[in-house]
Recover the amino acids of this structure.
């Protein structure tokens, strides 16, 4: 039977018609995580099912992106202009609108395996239909759930080649799904693979580049282009900066790095850049914070405080925008190659990336090529740039500019010819492998603006390549030397177990994603380490509680996989330690307001000696002390709230902070806060507040309601730190 041809269409309804014709009315539609969803196809398919009860539609995906929505009239005044400026034109998901309104039709099921943190805590529907799975198992679980249609967003070829497209931001699951669905097709099962072209997507290279014919149908019309979803940067708090500073000392030059999105990642990157470009200041700060004093042995063993002479390689599930910052600042520069033998020679310093005539003999000695060059050897030499020029391989001979030479390294003429055509340095190296990306608009702009040769340094591949060693352990182990897998948790127990994705009630907060994969790799690699970050406390309804707890009824990472935990108060090296020593180390990085109670619980359980006392050096773990330590360096321009910029204006940042602080005051001091707001009603607002009131359109209130809203904002601003 002839293979079906890829169909390129210009109407989204045609896509839905073809799905129904091909797989029938029972549809299990899969989409990748976050940015790479074909929004128009998803909406058209959902609306068709909504209007036709005969269609049985299940949508399985992760992180369905939504514009922020205000929870009050006052919040709307702040948020609406921001939404219009940053997310104008983004195509929202109709199924998410109905899910939020509890209006999903009975013939439609929505399941996700990863969500925005806390996004579904108040949705019993989403909680009940959440699928808990490791990122590397997601495709397997989609197949088990009956996946028969998959769709993703794709980037058109920059030179208009219709035969090639790029999966760009999301080859993560799609590459593996294509392979498995092809196997299912051989069994006679009906399925469809759809792509939607969006010219705003950066054309990324690596495994993300596929032939168009891999798709059964591609929706391709400029009318379906839409702006990519932007994730504006969050402010980096003093605690986040301190965590980042501690983590930065554990990163080994000439090593590998995994970090995620958010303010903690920004804190790490800004400290790494300071370490590289302002090394003297960096070391002064480490000394002032007593980081080198407390952890010198650990830093010397696994990290460093010098600048990055060799640089880092990124092996990261999520290609976050700070990797571009690290690249621009000369840190992300260690190139890796997709040949285990070549990578091993580089690691062992037997060769360098600079090509010399001796490289042929070295490659022969290490069984990378043969003395009598085969066609495969010739392709390898050309691929990695060892020889350059007009070459061919034909019938056991090397043809250079029409002249034939024996394909034999023992032949003097052949050697002379090859030496005269040596390349300058190894080719095909990359500085970062990623599986998916999402970020702020300037991140997308940076990728789109990169020359092709630079963008190729950021290679996109499937999550089964990036997130695990299985399949090509030798190559990946060589590439990921001195791997530092840095991830965040919500809570950590005194025994080193990590709580990252859910609550002890069973409610899901986000999802495990790839966290277990990082843990597994860190323990499998001989020189790998896992670094789990946790803020020592959290504040809810005005009440502060500890994120370091004695025990908890849900774990994401069990205690036997503990490694390194970092809070704003320091580093706890837990790997291989007995429970007693683990508890002592965790107490040292806990907030001092909770240390004694935690110690009391440990003593009661018999896990630490009854006369144990927390060392005096670790009894000053307070937010005030962190603020005081950072203050002199902030004055000099370090540890800024937005080290890499922000999409928000200064007024918006100030107002958001003030209104957040007001919410906390209302929850803890309601009567006093209301009285304070009333006291502002008849007072003239201070002059410095007027521009902020103008931003909220409350500088000239037109009615009693607006006068009250103005009083609320004035009170919030005057009482915000």
């Amino acid at each position: 039977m002839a293979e079906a041809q890829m169909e390129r269409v210009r109407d989204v309804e045609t896509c839905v018609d073809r799905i129904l014709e091909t797989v029938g009315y029972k549809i299990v539609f899969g989409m990748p995580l976050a940015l790479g969803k074909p929004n128009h196809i998803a909406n058209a398919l959902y609306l068709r099912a909504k209007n036709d009860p005969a269609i049985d539609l299940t949508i399985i995906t992760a992180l369905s992106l939504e514009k922020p929505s205000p929870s009050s009239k006052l919040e709307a005044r702040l948020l609406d202009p921001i939404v219009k400026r940053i997310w104008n034109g983004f195509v929202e998901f109709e199924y998410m609108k109905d899910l939020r309104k509890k209006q999903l039709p009975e013939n439609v099921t929505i399941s996700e395996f990863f969500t925005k943190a806390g996004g579904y805590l108040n949705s019993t529907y989403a909680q009940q239909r959440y699928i808990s799975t490791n990122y590397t198992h997601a495709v397997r679980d989609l197949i088990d759930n009956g996946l028969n249609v998959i769709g993703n967003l794709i980037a058109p070829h920059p030179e208009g080649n219709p035969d090639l497209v790029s999966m760009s931001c999301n080859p993560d699951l799609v590459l593996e799904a294509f392979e498995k669905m092809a196997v299912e097709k051989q069994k006679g099962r009906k399925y469809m693979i759809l792509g939607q072209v969006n010219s705003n997507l950066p054309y990324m290279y690596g495994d993300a580049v596929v032939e168009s014919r891999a798709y059964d149908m591609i929706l391709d019309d400029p009318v379906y282009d839409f702006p990519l979803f932007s994730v504006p940067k969050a402010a980096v708090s003093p605690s986040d900066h301190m965590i980042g500073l501690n983590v930065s000392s554990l990163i080994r030059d000439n090593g590998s790095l995994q970090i995620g999105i958010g303010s903690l990642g920004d804190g790490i990157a800004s400290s790494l850049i300071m370490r590289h470009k302002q090394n003297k200041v960096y070391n002064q700060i480490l000394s002032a914070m007593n980081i080198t004093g407390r952890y010198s042995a650990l830093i010397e063993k696994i990290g460093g405080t010098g600048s990055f002479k060799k640089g880092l390689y990124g092996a990261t599930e999520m290609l976050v925008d700070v990797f571009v910052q690290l690249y621009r600042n000369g840190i992300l520069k260690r190139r890796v190659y997709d040949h285990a033998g070549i990578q091993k020679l580089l690691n062992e310093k037997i060769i360098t990336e600079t090509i010399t005539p001796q490289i042929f003999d070295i490659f022969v000695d290490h069984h990378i090529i043969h003395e009598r060059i085969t066609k495969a050897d010739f392709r390898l030499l050309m691929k990695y740039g060892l020889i350059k020029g007009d070459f061919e391989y034909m019938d056991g001979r090397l043809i250079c500019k029409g002249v034939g030479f024996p394909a034999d390294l023992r032949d003097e003429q052949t050697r002379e010819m090859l030496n005269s055509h040596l390349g300058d340095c190894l080719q095909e190296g990359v500085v970062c492998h990623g599986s998916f990306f999402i970020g702020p608009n300037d991140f997308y702009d940076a990728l789109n603006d990169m020359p092709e040769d630079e963008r190729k340094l950021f290679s996109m591949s499937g999550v089964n390549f990036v997130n695990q060693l299985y399949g090509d352990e030798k190559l990946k182990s060589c590439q990921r030397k001195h791997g530092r897998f840095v991830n965040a948790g919500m809570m950590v127990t005194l025994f080193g177990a990590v709580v990252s994705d859910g609550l002890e009630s069973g409610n899901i907060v986000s999802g495990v994603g790839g966290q277990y994969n990082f843990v597994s790799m860190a323990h499998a690699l001989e020189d790998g380490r896992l670094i789990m970050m946790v803020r020592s406390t959290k504040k809810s309804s005005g009440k502060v509680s500890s994120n370091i707890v004695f025990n908890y009824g849900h774990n994401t990472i069990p205690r036997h996989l503990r490694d390194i935990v970092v809070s704003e108060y320091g580093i706890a090296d837990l790997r291989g330690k007995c429970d007693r020593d683990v508890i002592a180390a965790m107490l040292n990085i806990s907030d001092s307001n909770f240390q004694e109670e935690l110690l009391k619980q440990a003593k009661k359980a018999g896990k630490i000696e009854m006369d144990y006392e927390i060392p005096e050096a670790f009894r000053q773990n307070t937010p005030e002390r962190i603020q005081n330590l950072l203050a002199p360096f902030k004055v000099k321009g370090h540890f800024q709230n937005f080290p890499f910029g922000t999409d928000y204006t200064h007024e918006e940042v100030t107002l958001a902070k003030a209104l957040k602080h007001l919410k906390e005051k209302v929850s803890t001091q309601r009567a006093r806060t209301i009285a304070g707001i009333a006291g502002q009603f008849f007072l003239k607002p201070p002059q410095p507040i007027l521009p902020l009131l103008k931003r909220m359109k409350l500088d000239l209130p037109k009615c009693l309601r607006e006068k009250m809203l103005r009083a609320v904002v004035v009170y919030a601003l005057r009482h915000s730190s």
About this structure: The chain has a mean pLDDT of 95. The longest helix spans residues 650-668. The first strand starts at residue 7 and ends at 9. The CA atoms of residues 447 and 596 lie 50 Å apart.
